[in-house]
From TrEMBL, chains A, B:
L-histidine binds at residues 83-85, 127, 131. GO terms for biological process: histidyl-tRNA aminoacylation. Residues 12-311 form the Class II Histidinyl-tRNA synthetase (HisRS)-like catalytic core domain. Keywords: Glycosyltransferase, Transferase. It comes from Parasphingopyxis lamellibrachiae. This is ATP phosphoribosyltransferase regulatory subunit. One of its GO terms (molecular function) is histidine-tRNA ligase activity. It holds the Pfam family tRNA-synt_His.
């Protein structure tokens, strides 16, 4: 193979330079602080685990998504985590299985994907989020979504939109009021994704036709869904959605696409995606799901996770730097005091160092900072 | 191979649980804030790079230390970084080569080692530090060591000790005042490490004998070193050490072992290790070194890095949690206000949730927080 040019990085891996690296750290900090204020305690799982264990935790694409590590020490194949949520589920089900529920956990760190997506060219992404283990009630969903909105607002996102979906609606209806041959469930879901009314009718699934037209702004979608007579399963979900909307008190625009399932393969009754003004693509997602314990027991949970990369790209988390030039011979006590007052001091090491060359915004005049 | 029990992690990789994960984040935050106050700008290189590139950057053990990743996308072998310093050097020499010097860069993040050491059972470690690129003067060393002391103090370390060494002293003396056959330099260094005066004499390197007894507290070591008549190279180094000690103004205990070289294989005139009261092992290290640019040019630099794991193990960064129980039915405005005042609220989701079960320290009495 040809020699790699100096400084070249593998596809999808990159350096964050100033001021972007600091913006990333500041955003992570504000999101973690926001989540901590709701009593969520931070956990920090390792960057890599046994491939076998990690695949077991991931409920969707799983194995194909993993970057594998050869580990001569364990003589096993390890894999880098493509997601932290599943690791938090593992912790809740093992080392923290004995803790009182609901268990509130938060996390923030790097994940590594095997492949970039069209939307995100990076394979290393910064993920942060919170998981509420032991409840998937409307109260749980309201707390998780309020926190997600708080965290996005703390990060500087405005005009937040939440797209809600009911991931298990079709299988639930198929097992109840709108019976479907189990072999047809996936086909009906696929045609609902396509909003293809003709194909749904051709499948003999006419009862599902009203769902095609129910996606949209919350009020409209709710009205259309309420008109569908499908008994308790649907009504309780709609009541849940109404309760969540109430709890959010107009802090976000809410839409409902009841049958959207892309990326919600492992969610149960509720899934959601988060968007912001002038930001390309989804900022985060979450919903209700099930954690499996080693003894086979299942436990409900609810959570959200954010990817910080789109926020950083949008210029959030950046703060004007006030850099104060400290000339050669300045008393170190003065520089100490200025730092303790919040200044970033930049000291000259030789006579050749200048305030301008060192990218300073302020200089010392008679021992006091003045703008340059 | 046998099945891996649920929750088992590979050797040397572990979960940080509450409150340790938060302590780690708090320590990293305080160290990065401290370094930023000196005008060091954060960079964040990726967790993995091309193996070939990463080995080129590492000046010591290098390749044997790496955990390798199979990357089907680049069709190259990648490696996980065992250290961030070398990556920062790469950034300084490539993407930030055009920036005015001195260039002040800071970093903090996870590194992954192939093997644990006797002192540290972890293979994933949290590293933070700062690099000053373009100078290795006494002023540069003084700034780097003052920052290291500040950062350790900010993290809560007391009674800091700095062990100084002069890594290139023997080769410098051998090329000048105390000529040595180039084939003997390594042997003399090895015997100096062993403090074996007899072996040094047997090598015919009598001029080096006084160095055996020069290690110790700074004043004593300096006095003994000053008595060695070895011309400018030694004197300028001793003057440098004296200047650094002056700049630190008694903020740390300083020792000097002029020929200690273990772990300083790539340092030039100055190396140092950092220690704290009641903390096992070294907390960090650093010194002066050389960065190689793509065009063959060399550039001097000076830096330090800390490992946060011993600080976390010592219980630093932990903060008493005040968790306020918020009963069912509490107005969300009240909870919002309490969070904005700095409280961590823990909301009841059902009547079964209790302040005690949710590990709260405070409850609401007439809308005001009271200790439980």
């Amino acid at each position: 193979m040809s020699k790699i040019p100096p400084g070249l990085l593998p596809e999808g891996l990159r350096d964050r330079l100033p001021p972007e690296a600091e913006a990333a750290a500041r955003l992570l900090r504000s999101i973690m602080d926001s989540v901590a204020s709701y009593g969520y305690e931070r956990v920090s799982p390792p960057l890599a685990e046994f491939e076998e264990g990690l695949v077991g935790q991931l409920k969707s694409d799983g194995a194909q998504d993993l970057l594998r590590i050869i580990d001569p020490v364990s003589r096993r194949t390890l894999a880098l985590r493509p997601d932290i949520t599943a690791q938090v589920g593992r912790i809740a089900a093992t080392r923290m299985a004995g803790r009182t529920r609901p268990l509130r956990l938060a996390y923030g760190g790097e994940v590594l994907k095997l492949r970039a997506t069209q939307l995100r060219p990076e394979r290393q992404l910064l993920q942060a989020g919170a998981e509420l283990v032991g409840s998937d009630s409307v109260a749980a969903a309201s707390e998780i979504l309020s926190m997600a909105v708080d965290a996005l607002e703390a990060a500087g996102v405005t005009d937040i939109t939440i797209d809600l979906t009911l991931p298990d609606l079709v299988p639930t209806l198929a097992a109840g009021p709108f019976p479907l041959d189990p072999g047809l469930v996936d086909s009906v879901r696929a045609e609902l994704d396509e909003k293809d009314a003709g194909a749904i009718a051709a499948l003999g699934a006419d009862a599902y036709l009203p769902l095609v037209h129910a996606a949209g702004p919350l009020d409209m979608a709710m009205e259309r869904m309420r008109a569908i007579d499908a008994g308790g399963a649907l009504q309780s979900r709609l009541d849940g959605i109404a309760g969540i909307a109430d709890a959010l008190q107009g802090r976000a625009t809410i839409t409902l696409d009841p049958t959207e399932r892309h990326g919600f393969e492992y969610q149960s009754w509720l899934g959601f995606s988060l968007f912001g003004a002038d930001m390309a693509g989804e900022l985060g997602r979450g919903g209700s799901y099930t954690i499996c314990h080693a003894d086979g027991a299942e436990e409900v949970a609810m959570g959200f996770s954010l990817y910080l990369d789109p926020l950083i790209d949008a210029g959030l988390g950046w703060k004007e730097k006030k850099r104060l030039f400290v000339p050669l011979g300045t008393e170190s006590d003065l520089a100490d005091r200025l730092r303790s007052e919040g200044w970033r001091t930049v000291a000259a090491l030789t006579d050749a160092d200048t305030a301008d060359g060192l990218d300073c915004t302020h200089q010392l005049i008679n021992g006091e900072p003045e703008p340059l």
